[in-house]
Design goal:
The protein is mainly α and 399 residues long. The protein contains 15 helices and 4 strands. It has a 4-stranded mixed sheet with strand order 2-1-3-4. Helix 2 (21-55) packs parallel to helix 10 (229-269) and helix 8 (189-216) packs antiparallel against helix 10. The mean pLDDT is 81.
């Protein structure tokens, strides 16, 4: 292979790509705009919907309680709920989201607890419906407070100190560094987006430099040049890697800008006081780990797109690869999936997992070296396949 010839091919392809508006759009504009837009939408959605759910006065129904005026009076004075007349299909109304919860009070409730006999109040709600779950939480807190008040009054009536109800208190606090807390929330999501942008950044150039050349009839012209086929494929490969890396780096910079400017507003909108940070050094380490993955994407896409005889056909070949990339990237965002010596050998998933650990401030150097090395091996195999495909006449001149 002649590196000078490959460099000449690379510069030619780079110049052509920079003149193409579609490349500029997919490589630069989309990653730069996507993250600020995503954070803005997240902030608006959280501020609008999460805030509304918390402030809502929940509509509820109460079954029973006619002979228990004390608990009913307390419920009616509870400002977070509004009691509607009971209907026989109250459970269905909870399921239909017409009301948020159904409370069932046993017969003779007031008299039973006044006599020291324990009773049970049931709350029916719609699990996985946020408004209904919030109503359930508020009702749980209300009845817990009411129960403590009843117990405290009973103890005081018997001359026993009410402090016996709380012989000790419990205080929980977060002892993990803010970076680890942030990683638990966003650590899996950030590598996912970066990997997706890295792949999409390589997709269009790979199809245009192979199937696009065939469709335009310029492949034969390139093959007639003094450069060998290995030089040609290496030059095209470098161009695809450049597009992939530039897209990934721009997406990381855009993510960093969006994170810096919008994180406080999003956390405040979510009603949380949680503070978290992402170390710039971690971002640099993630970029270094993304590099062999960009090489793998470029080599794989080049080999696959070479099989197509038109740009449209190349799209049909490349689309299934999106699932191959997305599935391990999504698995990497699932809580509980940890980086170990098994996941370290699974391409894409290993990069996603080790990036998640790095963002949290945890550096498993042996794992990082293994992931980097394995991804380089996969990338070398992909590049070898692309060179082999480019040297086959039946692939280049397929009709």
């Amino acid at each position: 292979m002649n590196l000078r010839n490959s460099w000449t091919v690379y510069r030619k392809e780079l110049r052509d790509m920079l003149r193409d508006k579609r490349t500029i759009r997919s490589m630069i504009i989309i990653p730069v705009v996507a993250f600020p837009l995503l954070f803005l939408l997240m902030g608006y959605a959280m501020a609008h919907f999460a805030g509304q759910a918390q402030k809502e006065i929940a509509l509820i129904m109460v079954q029973g309680g006619e002979d228990s005026p004390k608990i009913m009076s307390a419920l009616q004075n509870f400002a977070s709920v509004k009691i509607l007349p009971y209907k026989d299909d109250a459970k269905q109304e909870v399921s239909d989201k017409t009301i948020r919860a159904l409370i069932q009070i046993p017969k003779g409730f007031d008299a039973s607890i006044a006599g020291g006999h324990p009773e049970q109040i049931s709350i029916g709600y719609y699990k996985s419906n946020e408004e209904s779950e919030i109503a359930n939480d508020k009702l749980q807190a209300f009845f817990s407070q009411y129960r403590d008040g009843v117990a405290r009054a009973a103890l005081e009536a018997r001359g026993v100190p009410a402090s016996l109800l709380e012989p000790f208190t419990i205080e929980s606090s977060n002892v993990a560094p803010p970076s680890k807390v942030g990683a638990a929330m966003f650590g899996g999501l950030i590598p996912y987006f970066i990997i997706i942008f890295c792949f999409t950044g390589a997709t269009y150039p790979a199809m245009d430099l192979t199937a696009g050349e065939k469709e335009r009839g310029t492949m034969e012209t390139i093959l007639s040049s003094p450069a060998s086929r290995t030089d040609l494929v290496f030059g095209k490969f470098l161009m695809i890697v450049t597009a992939s890396v530039v897209t990934a780096v721009l997406s990381i910079l855009s993510l960093g800008f969006s994170f810096t400017h919008f994180k406080n507003s999003i956390v405040a909108a979510a009603g949380s006081s949680l503070q978290f940070t992402i170390d710039p050094g971690s971002v640099v380490a993630v970029i270094l780990l993304i590099l062999p993955l960009a090489v793998l994407f470029a080599a794989g896409l080049l080999a696959v797109a070479l099989l197509a005889k038109s740009y449209r056909e190349a799209q049909s070949y490349v689309q299934p690869l999106v699932f191959i990339v997305v599935i391990p990237a999504v698995i990497g965002t699932i809580p509980g999936i940890e980086l170990n010596w098994i996941t370290a050998f699974i391409p894409i998933l290993n990069t996603c997992m080790v990036s998640k650990e790095i963002i949290s401030g945890t550096y498993h150097w042996a794992m990082m070296a293994a992931v980097f090395g394995m991804t380089c091996v996969y990338a070398a195999l992909g590049l070898a396949a692309a060179v082999r495909m480019f040297n086959r006449e039946d692939v280049l001149f397929r009709t």
